[in-house]
Amino acid sequence: MDTPLREPTFLILTALAAAPMHGYGLIGEVAALSDGRVSLRPGTLYGALDRLVDAGLVDVDREEIVDGRLRRYYRLAPRGEATLSAETDRLRRNVEAATARLRSRAAAPRAATPRLAGGPA
């Protein structure tokens, strides 16, 4: 995948990197991974999962009946693992660049702010 992943997609793939999960398990795991910043609704999640399956990033692992309802489990596909790994490397490089810039900024002496003529002293 050449374009950066959207955060919800990144978090779904990250959750599935640990183990296969069903939809509601993914909703909880994404919320936990994001410290509650990303809250997926079922319709949003299942639409995303359909797209990820179609793209070959996620596979259906298995299905089971629980309390009379179908529960589908998803797993990270090999292509999804490669995509997640590449995106993690991209994000890491960005963080390293930003961290280096912030460190150099903190270490550099601050130039005095020039005063404008005619302004308060």
UniProtKB/TrEMBL annotation:
Q: Where is the Transcription regulator PadR N-terminal domain?
A: 12-85
Q: Which domain of life is it from?
A: Bacteria
Fetch the InterPro entries from UniProt.
Answer: Metal_resp_DNA-bind_regulator (IPR052509), Tscrpt_reg_PadR_N (IPR005149), WH-like_DNA-bd_sf (IPR036388), WH_DNA-bd_sf (IPR036390)
- Residue numbers spanned by region Disordered: 102-121
What is the name attached to this protein's record? PadR family transcriptional regulator
Q: Give the source species.
A: Micromonospora musae
